[in-house]
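User: ok so my PI wants both of these folded by tonight, can you help

Assistant: No problem, let's get them done. Here's the first:
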Amino acid sequence: MRKRSPAKRLRPRSTSRLIYALVALAIGLSVHSCTDLPVARELEAAGASVQKLAVDLGTALRTYGRTSTPGLAVESAPAARTGGAAASTGTGDFSACRNFFAGGKPPVVTSLPTHRALCYDAFAILHSGESKTAVYVAQKLNRASVADADEKRTNRFFADARLRAAERATLEDYKGSGYDRGHLAPAGQMPTAQAMAQSFSLANIVPQAPQHNQGTWRVSVEDATKKYAGRATGDVYVITGPVYAPSIAQSKGIGPGQVRVPAYLFKLVYDEGQGRAWAHWHLNDNATRASRPISYAELVRRTGIEFLPGVNLAH
């Protein structure tokens, strides 16, 4: 007697088609058997809704299958859908990664429908679907995390599958653009191999002038911040982001997706133990040179964002 060969697993696409077919059949039979009843039209409408849901689900599965994201934490809901106080302040739902913010409180920004809060192993991002870059990226550094930041760089950039296709940057956008893919949370500050791999998410990247990215910004801002955190006695909170002028819509765009090019970059450094905060503010230009940091109050004035809500700074 011949052994039966094991049945092949259904591919995801076949599975989704089968589920759709069964759901459609069940609804169709229900409507057919109730055609003489007053609820027939309601069942028909329900069937149409389920059909649309099945189609949308199939599209989402296909999109997810085309893009991989290494080892990411569970994503949060879009800020505009969180409701209550979070929706009015634009803080989003960072419940899975509030440890990256001083006092567990994210910056207070104006909420937009295209904002989405994302948690990673070693940083958190509030992403803008309008600019297709971060609004800001938050980190918490200390002696231990800096000492562990010795991972081999992978350089494997990727589009983050947790963002809607219409709201995220792609590798194609940066190709031949003349701009570097500039990290906001630097790969060289990541304490584990997985965190370092996650830092190459394009949600953590902005179009940056090459000489600025590889020179002044890296040496006088990123390296200086890492060294400071490595000597600090406690936690150092760092928030980095782009500034668009005069607006996102009026800023230059690159690639098919028109990823917006920021006019300025900032990096806020807050030493919790010392109660001190300062910010680096750089023009996104190859000619930019190192400059003195600005005060926290000046950063708030220039950006309109309260980055450290509830924090009393030492004077």
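One down. Here's the second:
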Amino acid sequence: MHSSTFKVQKISLLKLWPIASLALFVLLFVTTTGCGVYSFADVSIPDSIKTVRVNFIENRAPYVNPQLSPQLTDHLKQKIVNQTRLTQTNSDNAHYDINGTVTDFSVSTSGISNSGTNNRQQASMNRLTVAVHITVRNTLNNQVQEYDVSRSFEFSAGLSFQAAQTQLLDEIVRNMTDDIFTRIFSNW
């Protein structure tokens, strides 16, 4: 039988540093360059798109909450600036021209309970439904895409509609802004 002897060679970390650095550089280069599309955190924007104009989101719902449109518009602008490389502009020749309209802001009953000695049914939960229609015009290739974004928000039937709106407004604006942003920039 042969006895094999293996030599174990210690490799200094300093000798590996150039190789590790090169591997890290290549990995970063490959993941940050692509086929002409900017992509970060599921955001997909062609390289040719540099500017965006977000127009005031009009409220044409049957019931108008006067705070919804200005807050939704401002939050969408902020989210685009903070999470994309696009530059905001008020110019008519922005590469992306975004328009929006609140089309629904309505309440319906979402839960019923029996109450009282005569076992009478009454609303226990209500649902506020908010819908926004978004139009994105790409001025570079004259393409228009349209999206409808809708979300429901539950609240106790014991709250008045005005109290529910006040309580839910921040959540409505935050969630609708996220949904609109995702719909425009993630192509889902």
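The chain has one domain: 38-113+123-185. Confidence is low (pLDDT under 50) at residues 24-40. Good luck tonight!
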